[in-house]
Amino acid sequence: MTPTEHRWNARGEGYVAAQVLLLAGIAALPRLSPAARPPAAVRRTGLLLLTLGGALAGWSGLRLGPNLTPLPEPRPDGQLVQTGPYALARHPIYGGLLLASLGWALAHGHRGALGLSGGLALLFDFKARDEERRLVRHFPEYPAYRQRVRRFIPGMY
What we know:
Its main location: membrane. Pfam families: PEMT. The chain has one domain. It contains five helices and no strands. The chain is globular, with a radius of gyration of 17 Å. The two termini are 30 Å apart.
């Protein structure tokens, strides 16, 4: 543990706490302070992104099975999953949650929720980088997988 790491955050608990707070804020803001109803096309786009993102996150979580953990620290007995959505992106759950949060913000036309979605994107970028350092230590095959598969967006990022 480095001097900047605290015992409560040794496995990445701080990322999870921030993630929960951001997701709760994104979900609650449109209900607590409703915005003007967005145009129908924006609402439909938002609902589509919400649905696709939720489906991607759900599929990815199911594909991980017993390897699933909210922490960036891999399970000691875990396996590296490289199939299904993990053949397209290294962190498809994060990508799905980002799509869903963006969709929710658009469907409600709420700029605050949209801003929190941007904060969530930054958090997931930091969390994914930390997670990948841990995965490299845990799985000898991870560097080759990282070379083949993009982090969040297939073929781009």
